[in-house]
Amino acid sequence: MSMAAEDKEDRSVATLERALAILGTFEISPSQSLADLSRRTGLYKSTLLRLLGTLEKFGYIGQQDDGSYHIGVAALHLGSLYQRWIKPAELINPALRALVEETGESSSFNVQEGDLRVCVYRVDSPHKIRDHVRVGDLLPLRRGAAGKVLLAFGQERDDPAWNGLRADCFCFTKGEIEPDTAAIAAPVFAAGGVLEGVLAITGPAFRFSDDKVESMRLPLLRAALALSRDFGGRTEVLEAAVHRAQQAVPAA
């Protein structure tokens, strides 16, 4: 490759990085002026205007009547493609809605992305006081119930430290993401025993008493088992966990 071609390629990469930096600022604020974007990216307004024009042309940026900018519809389309790559909403969302109806708390489906986990689907609790994780939020992999299940059945599946969690197919944490929130989580499997993702139930820690957590264990495990069957996954370990949870339920 000639020096001129290499220089052109380097400029193209730099332009792409700047465009991605612009999109990243909208996590801070959903609506921004040109001055806001310049301050947050460190780019000159003239450079920003050229980049914003291209992003708007392809639908990744929109402009409001007052001149401020917002994320465009093309970004939403990319998000929907990511969700479809994980698994179709028509399988996961009904399971999440059923969990919310049965437990009264928010439910979500989470997957691993590098050293983080991402909330791919979520249904909110009807309570006014609830945790406020959103679809697309990235959270620590090593903190919180969903992250620990991802580790135990994923990249650290051979670590004996997770044997108890793997046997129970269940994890409960309190105050690991935020001091006043709690969560329970269970794995969902695809074909070949591969971990597809994690179902989680989350909410304010004060509502996650020991009795409440135990009352939510069986519905969560049953939902994880049903989804695993829908995905064609191996279910022996979840079936055993469901059986143990049923045995633990006091007789009426």
UniProtKB/TrEMBL annotation:
The keyword Lyase does not apply. Residues 13-73 form the HTH iclR-type domain. It comes from the Bacteria. Residues 74-233 form the IclR-ED domain. Coiled coil: none annotated. The keyword Transcription regulation applies. PROSITE patterns: HTH_ICLR (PS51077), ICLR_ED (PS51078). This is IclR family transcriptional regulator.
